[in-house]
């Protein structure tokens, strides 16, 4: 894509248009090599039919040509015998060995400087009309005349090709040929509406014979919908200066449209248009195809469009141009993104400037929140710009919009900025004010100034919870924890416990324990018990003396944590449990070992707590009274049976049977549950004849089933015991049948002499027990009527023991 810009007077010191230069007989130069110029003569007026005389006067001197250095003082001129139309210098004319140039008119002449610094000329071509276009690249010279395009190899001094003109109906002077070299071997020809891309190739040695060493192959050829006034390469694409004729809808006559600069992608037999830009040049309505010329500066990627009155410079669009277009279309976000992506390549734009323009654009549109949000990314760590933008938002009354995005760390703005925003919220939005105080670090602004402002507002609305809570937070930032604690307690705020823990304010709450318990007894008790070293149990109990319900909550939690730590208060806790928490009284009585049982029994009797009284009676050893209370007070045979099972006392079972003998429901309960602890016959024999007992049959069946179950269990246990006994007996027998090694080192455990005699031939007798102890037979007591069996004196001195079995050895 190309960006077009008009520049007038580009080629001379004068700012007059190009046509004026022709009127003075000057030449339009085109840069073709470093420090050198290529000159081409303006066409004669006589060759332009229909052209006004004042627009194209004849040059005063058409035979004298001059080549001069743009950046050096070198200059030479030559006078010719006949008029010339075009001139081209060697691409490396600056070198002394390349002082060559060609001129085109009726002939194509090559001029070379000889060793005497004189110019000698040679005719390269003639006889086919005027030569109107010449392009020199490397060792190849391409030119166009009325018949076609030729290429001359300056090295071999041979013409290597002839590309004939396609459309001979077009006058060559009105629709001249356009030539350009893409590289040293690729020539692009544009003539009329036809484009040809030619490639110069080396001929194989076997094919040469009398032919040139090089030949030309047309690699692409296609037609266009417009007339070609100029060509130039652009990477693998072509830049084409197009001359367009259109038909008027009103008059149905052709007229000259504005010239176009097209970029096309050549294909083998066609082309694809990439972009097209119409050029605005003065007098385009009167211009012909030959009035336009396209030259390009290869190193700078600049394209020069020359018309009779204007010179237009086109250059390849860069990222700066793209950003310009986006900004012109007010697409600021896309421009900012493009600048960030191509940060290293842009030269004329700065990301910050684009970002600031974007913010201003959003503000103008009324999109304040988006503008404020973009400030974070665009302004970054530039504190001065942040402060400037904040004041801009203040002027339009939108400080609230920018407040969430203000920097809070790096950078830090002036305290006045933050205070200004806090005051703005304090005047109109208490909740927003509280949010900012909660989110902003306290060191961003002058805390005392904001505290004073909040106090002033509290004078008008002293019960406003939001302001009070915010004031407490400000006191906390200011390390005024006492005032903060009082406000939190007044508000019953959940953060009061966090404040106490974080800043170790236990000394400040010793007289505020009741307030804390009223607010949240669970958290308060946990906090007090976790910090017994700072607030003693005694102090807490004393503070709660007037609030026994809270006292019970504290002592109950203490007892659950440790049964012994608050033992001095266990007697007090009996009354507290009885008054406020009876469900936990019985567990307390069971777990406490410091509870006075008499006191507890008295309280339970007074309040008629039967279950607790039964437990206390049983714990004090008065099980019969406890059982009697269960039966007489609770009338619960199952509980009475359960109690009798726990105590496992025969007298209790007897009392239970005596009490139940005249109560059929009790008898049914006993029959269902007594079978596993007491012989049911004792109960059955005492049942009066004729007494109706509910579900008697089911109860008797259950008794028989329980009995059968017991028999089965006993038989099963017996079988297991017999099997285990037999297995162990066999194991013992196998062990006892094993031999025992006796050697010279063994001694008699009684006399301590060697067990074996020193004379092996002498007869001896010894006894070895299964416990491995050995004795001389004569060292053991002689069996008697009272003790017929011998035993090991060591393992079982008086009773039969593990050494009672005897293994007697004789020799």
Automatic annotation (TrEMBL):
A GO cellular-component term linked to this record: HOPS complex
Classification via SUPFAM superfamilies: RING/U-box, WD40 repeat-like
Extent of the signal sequence: none
Top-level taxon of origin: Eukaryota
A single BP term in Gene Ontology: protein targeting to vacuole
Record localization: Endosome membrane; Late endosome membrane; Early endosome membrane; Lysosome membrane
Residues of the RING-type domain: 748-796
Gene3D superfamilies the record matches: Tetratricopeptide repeat domain
Keywords of this entry: Cytoplasmic vesicle, Endosome, Golgi apparatus, Lysosome, Metal-binding, Protein transport, Transport, Zinc, Zinc-finger
Membrane topology type: Peripheral membrane protein
Compositionally biased region (Low complexity): 32-52
GO molecular function: zinc ion binding
Span list, region Disordered: 1-64
Repeat positions for CHCR: 525-669
Function statement: Plays a role in vesicle-mediated protein trafficking to lysosomal compartments including the endocytic membrane transport pathways.
Sequence similarity: Belongs to the VPS41 family.
Listed name of the protein: Vacuolar protein sorting-associated protein 41 homolog
């Amino acid at each position: 894509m190309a960006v077009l810009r008009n520049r007038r007077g580009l080629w001379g010191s004068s700012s007059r248009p190009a046509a004026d230069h022709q009127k003075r007989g000057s030449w339009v130069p085109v840069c073709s090599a470093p420090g050198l110029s290529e000159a081409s003569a303006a066409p004669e007026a006589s060759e332009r039919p229909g052209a006004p005389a004042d627009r194209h006067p004849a040059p005063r001197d058409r035979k004298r040509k001059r080549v001069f250095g743009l950046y050096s003082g070198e200059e030479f001129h030559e006078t010719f015998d006949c008029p010339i139309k075009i001139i081209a210098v060697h691409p490396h004319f600056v070198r002394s060995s390349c002082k060559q140039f060609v001129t085109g008119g009726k002939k194509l002449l090559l001029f070379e400087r000889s060793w005497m610094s004189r110019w000698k000329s040679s005719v390269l071509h003639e006889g086919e009309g005027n030569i109107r276009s010449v392009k020199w690249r490397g060792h190849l010279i391409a030119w166009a005349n009325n018949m076609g395009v030729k290429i001359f190899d300056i090295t071999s001094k041979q013409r290597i090709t002839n590309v004939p003109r396609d459309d001979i109906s077009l006058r060559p002077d009105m629709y001249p040929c356009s030539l350009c070299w893409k590289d040293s071997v690729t020539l692009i020809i544009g003539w009329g509406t036809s484009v040809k891309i030619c490639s110069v190739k080396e001929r194989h040695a076997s094919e040469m014979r009398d032919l040139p060493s090089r030949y030309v192959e047309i690699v692409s050829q296609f037609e266009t919908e417009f007339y070609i006034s100029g060509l130039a390469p652009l990477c693998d694409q072509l830049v084409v200066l197009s001359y367009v004729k259109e038909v008027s809808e009103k008059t149905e006559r052709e007229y000259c449209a504005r010239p176009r600069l097209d970029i096309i992608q050549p294909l083998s037999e066609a082309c694809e248009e990439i972009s097209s830009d119409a050029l605005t040049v003065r007098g385009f309505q009167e211009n012909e195809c030959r009035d336009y010329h396209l030259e390009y500066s290869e190193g700078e990627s600049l394209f020069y469009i020359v018309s009779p009155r204007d010179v237009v410079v086109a250059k390849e669009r860069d990222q700066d141009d793209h950003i310009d277009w986006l900004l012109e279309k007010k697409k600021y976000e896309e421009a900012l993104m493009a600048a960030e992506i191509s940060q290293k390549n842009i030269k004329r734009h700065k990301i910050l400037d684009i970002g600031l323009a974007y913010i201003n654009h959003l503000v103008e549109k009324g999109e304040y929140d988006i503008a404020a949000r973009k400030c974070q990314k665009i302004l970054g760590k530039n504190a001065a710009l942040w402060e400037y933008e904040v004041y801009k938002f203040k002027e339009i009354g939108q400080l609230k919009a920018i407040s969430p995005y203000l920097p809070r760390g790096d950078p830090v703005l002036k305290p006045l900025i933050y205070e200004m925003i806090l005051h703005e919220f304090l005047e109109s939005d208490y909740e927003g004010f509280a949010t900012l105080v909660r989110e902003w670090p306290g060191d961003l602004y002058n805390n005392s100034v904001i505290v004073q402002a909040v106090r002033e507002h509290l004078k008008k609305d002293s019960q406003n919870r939001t302001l009070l809570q915010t004031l407490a937070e400000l006191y906390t930032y200011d390390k005024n924890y006492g005032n903060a604690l009082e406000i939190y307690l007044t508000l019953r705020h959940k953060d009061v416990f966090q404040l106490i823990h974080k800043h170790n304010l236990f000394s400040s709450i010793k007289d505020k324990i009741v307030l804390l318990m009223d607010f949240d007894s669970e958290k308060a008790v946990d906090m007090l018990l976790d910090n017994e070293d700072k607030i003693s149990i005694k102090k807490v109990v004393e503070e709660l003396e007037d609030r026994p319900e809270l006292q019970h909550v504290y002592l109950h939690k203490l007892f659950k944590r440790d049964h012994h730590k608050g033992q001095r208060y266990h007697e007090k806790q009996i009354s507290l449990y009885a008054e406020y928490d009876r469900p936990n009284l019985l567990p307390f009585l069971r777990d406490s070992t410091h509870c006075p049982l008499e006191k507890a029994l008295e309280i339970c009797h007074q309040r008629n707590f039967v279950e607790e009284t039964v437990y206390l009676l049983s714990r004090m050893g008065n099980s019969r009274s406890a059982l009697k209370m269960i039966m007489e007070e609770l009338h619960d045979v199952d509980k009475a049976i359960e109690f009798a099972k726990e105590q496992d006392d025969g007298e209790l079972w007897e009392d239970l049977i005596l009490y139940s003998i005249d109560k059929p429901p009790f008898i049914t309960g006993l029959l269902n549950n007594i079978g596993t602890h007491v012989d049911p016959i004792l109960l059955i024999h005492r049942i009066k004849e004729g007494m109706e007992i509910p579900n008697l049959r089911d109860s008797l069946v259950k008794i028989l089933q329980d009995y059968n179950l017991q028999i089965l269990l006993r038989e099963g246990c017996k079988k297991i015991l017999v099997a285990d006994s037999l297995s162990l007996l066999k194991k013992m027998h196998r062990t006892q049948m094993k031999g025992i090694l006796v050697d010279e080192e063994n001694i008699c455990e009684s006399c301590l002499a060697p067990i074996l005699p020193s004379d092996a031939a002498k007869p001896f007798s010894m006894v070895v027990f299964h416990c491995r102890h050995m004795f001389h037979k004569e060292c053991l007591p002689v069996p008697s009527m009272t003790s017929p069996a011998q035993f090991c004196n060591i393992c079982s001195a008086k009773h039969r023991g593990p050494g009672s079995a005897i293994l007697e050895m004789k020799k």
